[in-house]
Amino acid sequence: MWDVLESFYDSVPRPGSRVEDHGELVLFLQAGDGYPFYARPRFPGGAPALADVLAVRERQRELGVPEAFEWVHETTPGLLAVAVEAGLEVLPAPLMVLDPEKLPEPHPHVRVLDTRPAEVPVVAELAFSSPGTEKGEAGIAERDAALAEATPTSTRHRHAVADLPGEGVLAVGTAQRAGDVVEIVGIGTLPAARRRGLGAAVTAGLARDALDRGAELVFLSAGSLDVARVYERVGFRRVGTACIAAPPA
Fold first, then answer.
1. What are phi and psi of 247, to 5 degrees?
2. Domain finish residue from 87, 121, 136
3. Host domain of residue 172
């Protein structure tokens, strides 16, 4: 499974990114609708040293992009200490895979699309501006105000929305695919609409859609243990740790 995941992480950004090699690290830079702003260990078998991390940080500053790094701890365990020595803070995110037999029944108001409605980035941004699972203030009014200024964007992925009658889109998510592997990302619920099971429903909808389209492995990374418990309720189980590193805030 680890080899499959590493192959996925290396291949999925390449079609939409400009790629630079820096020693044992690969830096993906935004090109078109690609994946911006992070570096990963070289595949296969990269073991980045302190000099590699410092060189990439310098390059990211030169380009004016965030100094961001991602890796799986189980496949590159030595990078954690190196990243900390390089001055980065590391978020250990639960890495979870789907048990298809535990998927719940589809939610009646979740739709999975091959286009990206304007609500997807807007709702996601509002959700991630207030992370966690607790209810917050941002809701429909803030969503609609942001939508008035939103511009259409293209996408290569599948997207899901929880679109409730009289309320509109309250939760969103995205599935990105390489081969037979699908990663679910960007799950977000308007803070004012939390605690209604909508994020879990969107996650389950994307997972079921991936299986229906022939995916053999569906996985995601949770931003915290509380968020991981939400994903556990729709059939995901923790198998490892995805590390996300950046300079201190």
1. -65, 155
2. 87
3. 100-239
Task: State residue 48's pLDDT score.
Answer: 96
3-state secondary structure of 138: coil
Of residues 181, 180, 200, the one with CA closest to residue 189? 200
Does the residue 22 lie in any domain?
Answer: yes
Residue 43, Cβ density class (10 Å: 0-12 exposed, 13-18 middle, ≥19 buried): middle
**pLDDT (tens digit per residue) in 35-72:** 567 999 999 888 999 999 999 999 999 999 899 999 99
The span from the CA of 68 to the CA of 76, in Å, is 16
**Residue 222: CATH number of its domain:** 3.40.630.30
3-class state of residue 19 by DSSP: strand
DSSP class of residue 188 equals E
Burial class of residue 166 in the structure, from the number of CB atoms within 10 Å of its CB (0-12 exposed, 13-18 middle, 19+ buried): exposed
What is the tally of structural domains in the chain? 2
- Which of residues 87, 117, 144 is at a domain's end? 87
